[in-house]
Amino acid sequence: MRVVGLMCKAPRPGYAKTRLAASLGAARAAEYAEAFLADSAVLASALGAATAFFAPDDGGAEVARLLPPAMRLRPQVPGDLGMRMIAAFAALFAEGGPALLMGTDSPDLPPAMLEEAFAALACHDAAFIPAHDGGYCAVALRAPAPSLFQNIPWSCAETLSATLAAAGGLRIHLTAPWHDIDEAEDLEKLHLAAAPFTRRVAAPPG
Hints:
By secondary structure, the chain is an alpha/beta fold.
């Protein structure tokens, strides 16, 4: 049984989408964070049995109200992003497999790319959906592979390249790249038809 995890933050002003907030203000950035989370949760839950891994520890209620009814909820463990991803994959593989972990910065991610990542595991150990900024939007694993998430420089142009360097003998599949939304100028890249919650936030008032 394939399983899916969504790494997410409670959409609080000043906590979520801080780089977006630098241009739009904390309140407006939090509106986008909420919409990104809701759209990403729909994507995740359509793929398989899905769990939202949330932060901070007291943010469960804020996240839960944005999830599809069948989606489960678990707090993220302490530590850097790599440690949190290792723990999330461990929780997912305890329930089934293969497993895919995604974030909320690509709310318009095409479902076909996520399906490609899962399908690639028939003959690969891991599959990544690269992001244009040097990171990645999602990673799928056939079995736990903690080395992919240890001693990695996160949130920078070298994230994916460092991850691939740590892969050792693992067979890796890369899909075509997609965008993630970190800065205000990235909002122009959104395919709003594929992200209905985000489309409502982006729509001009009136």
